[in-house]
Amino acid sequence: MLEAVAIDAVMRALADPTRRAVFERVASAEEITVVELTRGSGVTQGAISQHLKSLKQAGLVAERAQGRNVYYHAKPEGLAPLVDWMNHYGVFWRERFANLRSLLKEIDP
């Protein structure tokens, strides 16, 4: 059950296109502040902060305070529940494609 909760949190966090774009910017930087994320995004600083809060709750980003600034960095391990879920269904599709390949060979040797 706990695993399903983690998958749901990650999927919910990444379902929003703006939040996904914020995550991609955080992931592409070693560390980044809210101010840097806001610059050129077309999204308010408050909205960026809310998106970061959701990403943090899902375990996808972490923060480090230094003085008046808070630096965010991606937590790749936060994607593990999603990767595991996708791998589970990858097996399903690989088996289906193998069956299809066998069937096609039988039909057209």
Describe the 3D structure:
There is one protein chain. With 109 residues, this protein is α+β, with helices and mostly antiparallel strands. It has one domain (2-107): Arc Repressor Mutant, subunit A (Orthogonal Bundle), CATH 1.10.10.10. The chain contains 5 helices and 3 strands, in the order ααβααββα. It has a 3-stranded antiparallel sheet. Strand 2 and strand 3 (69-74) form a beta hairpin. The chain is elongated and about 70 Å long.
Write the SSE topology:
Elements: H1 2-15, H2 17-28, E1 32-33, H3 34-38, H4 45-57, E2 61-66, E3 69-74, H5 80-107
Antiparallel strand pairs: 1-3, 2-3
List the keywords.
109 residues, alpha+beta, Arc Repressor Mutant, subunit A, three-stranded antiparallel sheet, 5 helices
Helix content: 55-70%
- Summed up, the domain count is 1
Put simply, the count of helices is 5
Q: Class, according to the CATH hierarchy?
A: Mainly Alpha
Radius of gyration equals 19 Å
Topology as a string of helices (H) and strands (E): HHEHHEEH
Low-confidence stretches: none
What's the oligomerization state? single chain
Shape verdict:
elongated
Strand order of the largest sheet: 1-3-2
Mean pLDDT: 90
Biggest β-sheet description:
3 strands, antiparallel
- Beta-strand proportion: 5-15%
Q: Based on DSSP secondary structure assignment, what is the total number of beta strands?
A: 3
